[in-house]
Specification:
Blueprint: H1 3-11, E1 15-16, E2 32-34, E3 51-53, H2 57-66, E4 71-74, E5 89-92, E6 99-103, E7 108-112, H3 117-126, E8 129-130, H4 142-147, E9 164-171, E10 176-179, H5 188-191, E11 199-207, E12 209-210, E13 213-222, H6 223-236, E14 239-245, E15 250-259, H7 271-285, H8 289-300, E16 306-311, H9 312-316, E17 324-332, H10 333-350, E18 358-363, E19 378-386, H11 392-404, E20 408-409, H12 419-425, H13 429-439, H14 448-453
Parallel strand pairs: 3-5, 4-5
Antiparallel strand pairs: 2-3, 6-7, 7-11, 8-12, 9-10, 9-11, 13-15, 13-16, 14-15, 14-18, 17-19, 17-20, 18-19
The chain binds flavin-adenine dinucleotide.
Length: 457
């Protein structure tokens, strides 16, 4: 195994951008219907409902009012939970993608809710602005990413939804609604993480920051040392995360800090090769954990550090090519690293089939009613399995560890929690459910998953 390949694998395991699994075509004046929606990892069955791409708000309202069956908004289909499948229409907001009014002093902008983050970033950079933080990828839409509380990493950096200052939507009742500093401001924390259950967002006003460059460092260290130092690394770096490579006793650390240094050239991404070589090691050696560990350690030792400077959005997110399924829970800071270690021990004892790195990040507190981070900063621990592999054990063996330690699941990632579980985790869950009923009295935006979640019959 080439050292560089292992390094690349850890740096951006399974990378590739923008696999949009919807065969949508150009929109016509009337909503265009095409079939065949799939989520990114193809873990969900393809629903019967067609994809509809409304051209404007009038078409969107007509769709909500006239479609038989449930209507669900979709972003770029990068969630694993059953938030989107429905029997009426899957609504894709491709035509709501513009950069609108900008307040340069406040560094806020109204942005099309259906725009991909990766398409917004260059346009914002032209105006001297940038998102404060991003997750591992940026192919999600603005509405899709905020609606599930998508996060990056950084002890002082909240999830994307916390940056929402205002939004415009068509409610489940088919009516226009604005929530902003001027209108319905008390509802902002309810709507920031909305699961697409209150209305279909058309524009979102985001708090941004000045365009900036980041210095990215990547280094390997013994796993136990990283566990001991992780909180200091979070305190000392704007963005810090680490990935544990199972069966290696080694973690890869990644930090980003603001800089004004000159841009540097980035190495070619070899992560696809790398992740498949990790798979090969798993295939050949899963019954020989000692040998697997030795080979991994040899491959990693002495791997070169990465030390690069570039635009924030170009460094924070990367593409993911190899499809996987993922469970991620957000844990109280006091429990996060212990939860990771318990998961590591369990997988290394019982699940030789796992080869994707585990990811460990931190996110700052916010106040959105359904934000997993609304009661304090949390440490997020994610476990991935190769898409063709069995992942049922995540529910039976890994989820209980996260739950016992006070974890809240990522709204878009694998979990088996129902309404009662969420009610116990979120003090404002019933308030959200009540608001949902007020804004969507006929349940136009419900699908079976949301009906169960909110006990909506
Ligand atoms: C490879 C990969 C990497 C990932 N990395 C990260 C990461 O680093 N951090 C992280 O937190 N998550 C991550 N995720 C999860 C992902 O960010 C979330 O699941 C996100 O919600 C996906 O956004 P999307 O645009 O694909 O939305 P979808 O998955 O299509 O939809 C998500 C939710 O948004 C709603 N929605 C979509 N559009 C609208 C609208 N216009 N109005 C109202 N509601 C709407 C949908 O109804 C649904 O409830 C990753 C997922 C993948 C597959």
């Amino acid at each position: 195994m080439k050292r560089r390949t292992v390094l690349a694998t850890l740096g951006a395991f399974g990378v590739m951008g923008g696999s949009l699994n919807m065969r949508a075509q150009a929109a016509t004046k009337d909503s265009l219907k095409v079939a065949g929606w799939q989520n990114w990892s193809r873990s969900l069955p393809t629903p019967k409902a067609p994809i509809v791409v409304p051209e404007d708000k009038a078409a969107l309202k007509a769709l909500i009012n006239k479609t038989e069956g449930g209507v669900r908004p979709v972003g770029s289909g990068h969630s694993w939970t059953d938030l989107v499948p429905c029997d009426g229409a899957i609504v894709q907001l491709d035509n709501f993608n513009a950069i609108g009014a900008i307040d340069a002093d406040a560094q806020t902008a109204w942005l099309g809710a259906g725009a991909r983050l990766k398409d917004l970033s260059p346009g914002l950079a032209d105006k001297g602005l940038a998102f404060r933080n991003l997750g591992d990828i940026d192919v999600q839409t603005l509405a899709g990413s905020t609606s599930t509380a998508t996060h990056g990493t950084g002890a002082t950096l909240p999830c994307l939804a916390a940056e929402i200052k205002g939004l415009r939507m068509v409610t489940g009742a088919g009516e226009d609604m604005e929530i902003s500093a001027e209108k319905n401001s008390d509802l902002l924390p309810a709507a920031q993480v909305g699961l697409g259950a209150l209305g279909i967002l058309t524009e979102i006003q985001m708090q941004l920051v000045a365009r900036h460059k980041l210095h990215r460092r990547v280094w390997f260290a013994p796993y136990q040392d990283v566990l001991s130092n992780a909180e200091a690394y979070w305190a000392d770096n704007r963005n810090f995360e680490f990935m544990y490579l199972p069966f290696s006793d080694t973690a890869m650390c990644i930090s980003h800090n603001i800089t004004e240094a000159e841009d540097t050239r980035r190495e070619k991404d070899e992560s696809d090769d790398g992740v498949m070589q990790l798979k090969a090691l798993r295939d050949w050696l899963s019954w020989f954990p000692y040998l697997r560990k030795k080979l991994l350690a040899a491959a990693i030792s002495g791997a070169p550090e990465e030390d690069v400077v570039g635009e924030s959005w170009q460094l924070l997110s990367s593409a993911r090519n190899v499809h996987f399924n993922e469970m991620e829970f957000h844990l109280p800071v006091s429990e996060g690293l212990a939860a990771l270690d318990e998961v590591r021990a369990h997988i290394e004892r019982h699940r030789g089939d796992v080869f994707f790195p585990f990811e460990c990040r931190m996110t700052a507190q916010d106040s959105a009613w359904l934000s997993p981070f609304n009661d304090g900063p949390r440490i997020s621990v994610a476990v991935h399995t190769h898409a063709p592999d069995d992942y049922a054990f995540l529910f039976t063996e890994i989820e209980p560890i996260f739950r016992r330690r006070g974890g809240r699941p990522h709204w878009g990632k694998l979990n088996r929690l129902g309404g009662d579980d969420m009610r116990a985790l979120y003090p404002q869950f019933d308030g959200f459910a009540k608001l949902r009923t007020e804004l969507d009295p006929k349940g136009r935006l419900l699908n079976p998953y949301l009906r169960d979640l909110f006990g909506a019959g």
